[in-house]
UniProtKB/TrEMBL annotation, chains A, B:
DNA-binding region of this protein: 23-42
Membrane-spanning segments: none
Domain named HTH tetR-type: residues: 2-60
Keywords: DNA-binding, Transcription, Transcription regulation
GO MF annotation list: DNA-binding transcription factor activity; transcription cis-regulatory region binding
Protein name: TetR family transcriptional regulator
Domain of life (superkingdom): Bacteria
Amino acid sequence: MTVDREQVLRTAAALLTRRATATMDEVARSAGIGRATLHRHFAGRDALIKALEELGLKELETALDDARLDEGPADEALRRLIASVEPSAGLLAFLLTENQLFEGDVYDGWNRTDARISALFRRGQEEGVFRIDLSHAWLTDAFYGLISAGAWTVHDGRAAPKDFPYMIAELLLGGARRSVKQ
Amino acid sequence: MTVDREQVLRTAAALLTRRATATMDEVARSAGIGRATLHRHFAGRDALIKALEELGLKELETALDDARLDEGPADEALRRLIASVEPSAGLLAFLLTENQLFEGDVYDGWNRTDARISALFRRGQEEGVFRIDLSHAWLTDAFYGLISAGAWTVHDGRAAPKDFPYMIAELLLGGARRSVKQ
DNA sequence: CCCACATGAGACACCAATGTCTCATTCGAT
DNA sequence: ATCGAATGAGACATTGGTGTCTCATGTGGG
């Protein structure tokens, strides 16, 4: 009987990721509950988005924890991160565009995750694993961008989900150019 | 007296890129015209978005032409493309998210540009310049993703506009990993 | 100089979505 | 079996944005 808040959030995430303009009613229906019930659990659309943001943030932080970013070579840590972030990629892609739209009052929890990812790139640069002519700020943004792009590529069926980690890690680490001496 | 349609479109693009939910009234104000006048030139919001889409498409096609994608090594052609697409990056980033939101009825003009970019990557693969373990579909999506990410990085002040071509081309071509044998 | 035409401002109806409320129903714990 | 709590359905007012219209203004071309 009682609504599973987590379940509702995941369903809403799946729908909103596909269509960000979905109605509260559509969100409710897709979760198999009534609109009134949805309102009982989330005060309004803003509250729903914020809850989604907290969910995505929590998932990203869990992925960051699981990846053990400060262990081993930085490039291997980055691979672990990409792999563990994969299940959340769709939600993160949605939240990324959502945040870009609402400039200013962005949930500042993202600063923490940004800092951790940025720190990984900085460590890699200091240890000579990552190139230093690309700022860690740009590498961080590119990381998010490729995660989003990969999420859409998989979502639209242009790549299989299982290829997600490989195609992102390889492009982000090695680039598109074929290495001549290899 | 007469409104410069092109000018209005560019102003609208600049505003909507920053805040996609901007009102028709805000769009009009930012262009320095009245809402009624805006409606006289663009039947409605949909028409405005569509006009923006056509503008972005036109600019991208111009950039594709200017880059002469079928001349010289594919990686150099890609560099030319990134450089010539830079002025349109913000608009393209906006249209990209806009299109992802409205699934289905996307302006099919993008298929042409997708095909041209994809063809560049395929040519590069056939000529041994680009690696073949990453599909040209993914490379194309990644190209768009990095263009968008770069546009936001520049927009938010985390990189200078002049660095745009370098940081994107270098990451897309060479990746983040520091080449050991170099 | 004058007239035609585009514009700006504002009024207006309309619509879609939101948020709130009520009430009957149903589920689940006791 | 019973009672309380949560739900679903629907009604309702409200709101913000949209699209249309009118009218006064002013500018530019002839």
